[in-house]
Amino acid sequence: MIPPNPGEPVIKPEPVEHRVLTDRNTHNSVSTAPLVKPEPVNVSPSRLLSTLESNALTPSRARARENSGTTTSNKSGIKSEPVDNVTGTSRSFPVPPAPYVKYNSHQEIIYTPEGALSAGSAMIKVVKEKVRHLEIGSKLRKDVWKKDLDKLSNATSPATLIAICGATGAGKSSVINALLNDTIVPTSGMRACTAVVTEISYKTGRSIEGDVAFLAHDEWKAELSVLLDDLVDENGNLRPQSSLRAEAAVAWQKVHAVYPNIPYDSLINLKPELIISKDPKIARMLGTTQKISCANSKAFGKEIAKYIDSKEKKRGKKDKKDKDKKDKSEGPAYWPLVKTVKVRCPADALSTGAVLVDLPGTADANAARSSIAQQYMQQCHCIWILAPITRAVDDKVAKDLLGQAFKTQLLMDGNYDTSTVTFVATKTDDLSCKEIISALGLENDEELDEIQSSLAEYNSEMKKQTKIESEAKKAWKAEGEKLKAKRVELLEHKAHLKALKEGETFQSTLSKSPNSKSGKKRKRSGDNGDSPKRRKIGSDSDDDESEESDDDLHMLSDPDDAPSDSDKGSDDEKSDQSGSDDEYREDDNDDDEDDEGKDKDEDEDDNDVDGELMTEETMQEIVKQDQAELNEIKQSLQEAKDRHKEAQTAISKLKKKIAKAQREKNGYCAKARNEYSRDSLKEDWRAGVREMDQEAAMERDAANFDPTFDMRDYAAIDLPTFTVSSRDYIRITKQVEGDGEPTCFTDVADTQIPALQEWTKSLTVSSRDRAARNFLTQLKTFTAGIESYLCDMNSVSAIDRVNLRQRWASDLEGQSERMSTPPLRDFYDGSDDENSQEIELANPNGVVGTLNQAFREIVDAIVGDLQNVFKVGLQEKMQIGSRNAAAAAVQTSDTFAAEMHWSTYRATLRRDGIFRRDLNAELSQPLTNSIANSWAKVFEQDLFSAFEQRAKDAVVMMIDKIEASAATGLKDRCRAQGALALEDANTTMKGIVTLVNETLQTKQKDVSRTLSPHIQLQLQESYALAMLERGIGSVARQKAVVHNEIKRLRNQLFQGASDLLMDGLSSAAEAVGDALHSSLWDLANKVEVAMSVLWEDVKSSKAQIEYRAAVVKEVQEVAQQIRLWVAAEQSRQH
User: Whole-model pTM?
Assistant: First the structure.
């Protein structure tokens, strides 16, 4: 990490992908100092130290190099003669890898665990390159140093597994997508994704990768066998396809999806192996893993859909006529074959090491998938429980989801605490304000009243404006009709006036002309508005009339349609046609002469007004009057249109105000419900803890149990609870295009998704800090050992070295051959013995042999102590629990059968007691309940504190013996070296204790989960016996068989379960012993290596001596940088 200059912005490095990068994956390195492996060049050892100093990477140089995009390289070109290891003649030394950033003060360091690991990784590369060229006489030292270097080089930034649990419909997929800020997890049409474990982890870069693992051949064969049984009725016949329900429908859906060409009726004659052989492509796919890599989530979703899409929607879109073609053309679906899905994506929420594990929402028929889900549940570090908030309001959701069996298992795993469990209430935007206001008593809430008052005001105004808009619309239509009629009338009169002026005969086209006596007209057959005569009349009209008509067209637009040019054209056509009904076509005149003669009298009458002949002046007055009336109508129409437009504008604004106010109301109610739900869930969690504490107290001393006494501060227990709206978050952030506007929240913070994202990151803090701290401590101890060895190898006289070596060196044979022992670099080429602990010691009474004997006694004692602790703490409880379980077994079984539909009960028996519910687990629950609290108490103890102290005492005793055997003048030197050895041993001991604790926790989790499988195994024959019952009344007989079998077997069943648990714990103690033997052997080697500085004798060349000086300077600089990083970490805490 490069410290900033004053005033320069700080750019944090991107986090490492779950591990400290090593030589194998430096292409992904995030170190701020780019590491480039240089080509080796010949440099004399005498000039190497000055070259290193001149090339040292300071923060300022690092910045300059980073800006220029170059790396440090050696340009000295200095050469010397090679030095041979034995003769002391010159030899070549390679230039070290690109150096790490060197700081002058811890204040320059911006500390992060990833930064510390990355910096330490760069340091260890330099140290490793230096050390591998040292000539070392002791093979034991080479073994120990190589192991330490390998361990440091492969140090990892630990992953934190988060199990996401929740029933189907809890909104898990939507929450995960919101958390990842991308649509990674499919949310619809993907059957397999709800039935298999989906693991989602972080990767650098922009692409998204996935691994889809398929069931193995035997796993799919076993599932096919169960599915085929589901399709058979109680008489052993294939169920009618038209009446498939529940388990049978699911079974056929799976079989048909994978093998669409196998007819349903033929299944009764097919065995699983034969079905598998029907499709060689499917058979080849079993047991394989399909890898996917795409540039973005859209492409990734499309690609992964090939393997997990049920294809139901796709098939449902086919027409009936394509049905036969579809069945032949579409290949099999793969979703029933999917075992696990692993996704790697560049989601910031996962960048610090969190791994989301989406567990199936319901029980799965496939044993392999169920087993994987259980393994993840066992291995996870944190558990998230998701449920819709609509279920959380009733105060019972936590108890429903955290049922007794689940809580008991959490307790036994040591996970029933607020650092492990997180509750996430989903779908907070799904609400009814009326119900929330009533349930939470918000009727008199001032802030809510203000929102509702505004909303009521807007709604009232909306009704008013809606009424205005409606009335204006009606007026618009009415005035428009008047305008149309008046226009036709005006055009008629103008045409009449023109005829009078030209002395022509005029025939009215109106059904009843105001100046016609009879009002009768003769309509010509085939008349239309395109006659030449009509067009002539229109063209002969004066200019005012033409302009008037265009204005009228705008006025005549329908209020239901927005005015437009196309509307105007349409109105023109309608207007033209309205005045053309009785126009004569020129080509029809000859054919209609008789009709014209018949209408002659009527035509003559058109020139009369009240018995008087129509004159030009009279008609002009009529036209003038029509024009005035037309203008009045147009004004009224325009006023109606203006009122309509103003009302629509007001309505549009009111809609926005109402939507905003309603969203505010929704948001306010949602926040109130969220707060109430969080408090309810936290209180319910506290009640669960109190209940468990009281049960434990009752078991310890029922006579003195006081239910009013609080055994801890329950108010201080704070269950992490989040109330989230993934839908509104996705809408606010526009994660999905075209998804609409949010319904409750306008601020992303109110959706609580950002808070959940930060919580995800924070869950990894403790493990990351611990890993970085341990790494720096181990690196510091290792470099101190190197420095001590190189600086003090000549501080002891030859005679003292010989005496100490003969007494304490374990590899005397290696010492005698030290001059021919290869340099340490050869051990990186695989020439070392990986099983160093199996090497027969040349001196069994040396340091390693003596310490190992003491350690064996300590390990045997700790194994015995553990077994005794388990026996004292749990055996009696197990016996009580066995009796309780045996007494309740028959009733438990009968209740289980009575509460379940007969077809589901049969499916459960067919699956050896496990389907939607687990009869085996319910039978063993009384035993589990009896031991849960005691089990948790046993494993909450510090079981290895005594061991740690004994092992440290053994090391101190060993050091004291070495000091006692040393010459008088050498004791102070021996004491100082012993202090370094003890510091190294203490560091190693911490790692050993962590290892055995993890071993014991893993083993105890395994043991605690053996009850249900044991019960299942013991009842397997009973389940099979029940399934032999067929025909009428078979379900009742099956229940009777199970009832009688459990009654017969119950005592031995649960006593055997108790013995199984005790045997498992005894084996767990022995596994701890095995882990300790291996680790303590390594510790004994490290102690001897640390102390062997006093007696090792390496005859080196002058060149090697000079090279050691350079190595010493480098490890001293590394040690200084480690101190600065440690100081930076400590200052961050303060």
Answer: 0.75
